[in-house]
Design a protein that fits this description.
The structure is a homodimer.
Chain A: H1 5-18, H2 28-35, H3 39-51, E1 55-58, E2 64-67, H4 76-84, H5 109-125
Antiparallel strand pairs in A: 1-2
Bound molecules: iron/sulfur cluster (2 copies).
Chain A binds a DNA duplex through residues 4-6, 27-29, 38, 40-41, 43-44, 46-47, 50-51, 57-65.
DNA sequence: TCTTAATAGATTATAAAAATCTATATTTTA
DNA sequence: TAAAATATAGATTTTTATAATCTATTAAGA
């Protein structure tokens, strides 16, 4: 019932990158240091975000990462789903078949279906526009 | 980001017990069979719920469990917290001190504080009155 | 006193999360 | 063109949490 550290790190890294000036890049090392995230773990995270199309990367001495689109066009849900896969608040609550065989008659399932909709809506509503360079004074 | 099986089992067990007629008891074996929950695991769960004051138990041949109070007076939150401890949607989001040192300046924390309030409110609102004997035709 | 319950608590097994490691590819610049 | 700094790929390891089971004991009714 708790967000993984991986997703938490990812959200903070993307928030950091959102604050870059247009055209700027941030390297793994810089982000890791600024946000206190284990460097190698962050490398893995940014790699996955890049592969998923959330970030764009550049290799070489002046390399690093930037967003693939505007901050306001990237949602918390986008980032969380790259890290954890589809959000499922309880085992059964998605469209796929699951191990539990009670799905049809289950008393408590409808409650979780509803709560899942709520939380997904909230994750979708929250985007990184709130952290963009013009919204926050300076990078730490 | 997913409810534990333990909590899911617990909710279904309490829902089952909520459907008993006044004065009736249900044994571990009966509930486990009816709901497809591993018997020994359920024994542990019901033990904990009893110790926490959600259920009342009776030993001996005619023993079993009943609710400690009216179904509508037991919430999903009550049961979930006995199983998993305090609900925390992300590491930092509670009153205690946590490992992450970013708490004060963290950009994303306020979002999770808010979402946590939402989900806790929903867990508190949902009670077992909805499953009481007079609401549902018969026990399966 | 036998049987069928719950209780207590330790233990094991499995899986997921978190982190790290090794090696390679790419780009800049001295 | 060699060195340095960067990202990429993927495997591996470590750690922790979840899930489940086991052993022994206590309690009460028939
Ligand atoms: S018991 Fe109900 S809520 Fe739980 S996993 Fe199965 S269908 Fe879903
Ligand atoms: S980084 Fe922010 S949201 Fe994440 S655990 Fe730390 S304070 Fe909480």
């Amino acid at each position: 019932m708790q967000l993984s550290r991986k997703a938490d790190y990812a959200l903070r890294a993307v928030a950091y990158i959102s604050q870059l000036k247009k055209g700027d890049l941030a390297s793994i090392g810089r982000i890791a240091k600024a946000r206190g995230i284990p460097r190698e773990f962050l490398a893995k995270i940014l790699k996955e975000l890049t592969r998923a199309g959330v970030l764009v990367s550049f290799q070489g001495v002046t390399g690093g990462y930037r967003l693939s689109r505007l901050p306001k066009e990237i949602t918390f849900l986008d980032v969380i789903e790259v890290m954890e896969g589809p959000v499922r608040i309880n085992l059964c609550v998605d469209d796929r078949h699951c191990a539990c065989t009670n799905e049809k008659s289950c008393e408590i399932r409808p409650f979780f279906v509803k709560q899942q909709e709520q939380i997904i809506r909230a994750f979708k509503r929250q985007n990184f526009g709130a952290f963009a360079h013009n919204k926050i004074s300076k990078l730490a």
